[in-house]
Amino acid sequence: AIEAWGPGRDNVIHGNLIYDSGTDQFDLQSGIYLDDATDHFTVTNNIIYGIHGKGGDQCIYTKGIGNRIENNILIVDPTNVSAIRSLFMADERCDHHVYTKNIIYCQGDDARKSGRFMYDFNNWSDDRVELSDYNLFFHPAGEIRFKGKTVGGTLDVWRKALNGKFDQNSLVADPLFVDPANRNYALKPDSPALKIGFKAIETDRIGLKEDFPSRLKKP
Question: Chain centroid to CA 89: how far?
């Protein structure tokens, strides 16, 4: 739905509702795709669900340097690989990412044979993630798992990686969405996510701005 490739640094992707995006003809479908040389982006207050494709699909696919993914709601559908996936390739750097204060929720039964992951790291390096903490993970039909060489496995394995660098203050808990069965991902007042710093997303402010070109508006 939103893609960037070599656009210059310090861009912001904020306050989007991205859903039912993808195609049954291609793989690697993503709600947000930060491709090669997409550096120092800030990705905040987005709600992503319903991403679909032929395989290898996820809410956010990020390469680049220093990308910050914070305070998003990422719904991992049963056919998806993960919430966040990253990849180093072709000598384009992929390092120093920040993943914090996100809600990651695996929706429905686990339809994939290999399961689903919170993060999926291709060709992991120890500088891939600078910070990951104060996230809320929930998978009602399976384990909280991470995929990557030397860091792959359960949440306990992930937390022990690099001398306990990651997600020591994150929670595994039901985020208490208002009505997830009907895709209402607003939070109830007693959501545990709010207790670890997640800021409720103002869904009434999501949508096209008043000055958006009228020729591109939906009829």
Answer: 20
